Amino acid sequence: PGNGPERYDYQSLTTGIQWPPMQGGFTRYGDVKSLVESADNRLVIMGSGDEMRLRFKVPDEPVKSGWKRDFILHSVGWDKDANLHTILGQSVEPLPFREMKSYPYPTEVYPDEELLQQDREIYHTRRQNSARFWQSLVKP
User: Fold this and answer.
1) Is residue 101 in some structural domain?
2) Closest to 129 (Cα-Cα) out of 23, 27, 49
3) Are 91 and 24 in contact (CB under 8 A)?
4) Does 74 reside within a domain?
5) Most buried of the four, 19, 31, 44, 62, by CB within 10 Å?
6) Distance between CA atoms of 13 and 11, rounded to whole angstroms?
7) How far is CA 124 from CA 10, 56, 79, 92, 118, in A?
8) CA 41 to CA 116: how far, in whole Å?
9) Separation of alpha carbons 67 and 43, rounded Å
10) 123 vs 23: which has the higher pLDDT
11) What is the per-residue burial (b if ≥16 Cβ within 10 Å, else e) of 9-24?
């Protein structure tokens, strides 16, 4: 309500496809800790409707009287909205990286292509079915 962030209502789910899926490899479901534990160019590639849950250990030390404990999540991410007018918006690639000067980066090179290829083979193995979306638009 109000100006707060949108929240998922798990009691009211829709299974219909809302947005056209992008082409390319999305991160498989499951443990992705190694992709998010360091400030580097590794990514969790999420599609429409995906979510990621983060767990962390709360410090054992008690909070001083009158104080309260806050947690700050600093994240760096990029968003492609699959809008037909967004440059390269129909595919997850080319993947962005922290040092890029602009996107797309025609004169720059992804900094660790070998690690990216490894992540493609291990993590970014999930595909979305674009035909299912477009067919749903013409069904009576």
Assistant:
1) yes
2) 23
3) yes
4) yes
5) 44
6) 6
7) 26, 24, 17, 10, 9
8) 9
9) 35
10) 123
11) eeeeeeeebeebbbeb
Tell me if 35 is assigned to some domain.
yes
Helical segments of the chain, H only: 33-36, 113-122, 130-138
Say if pTM beats, i.e. exceeds, 0.90. Answer: no
Q: What is the pLDDT of residues 42-55, one digit of tens each?
A: 999 998 888 899 88
Amino acid at 41: N
Q: Is the separation of the CB atoms in 87 and 93 below 8 Å?
A: no
Q: What pLDDT is recorded for position 2?
A: 64
Our count of domains for the chain comes to 1
Tokens of residue 32, six digits: 């992705």
Instruction: Please check whether residue 82 is in contact with residue 20, taking contact to mean a CB–CB distance below 8 angstroms.
Output: yes
Q: Residues for the chain: how many in total?
A: 140
CB 63 within 8 A of CB 69: yes
Q: Which two tokens stand for residue 53?
A: 């849950």
Residue 28 has which token pair?
Answer: 């498989």
- Residue range(s) defining the domain that contains residue 51: 13-126
Amino acid at 117: Q
Residue 7: inside a domain: no
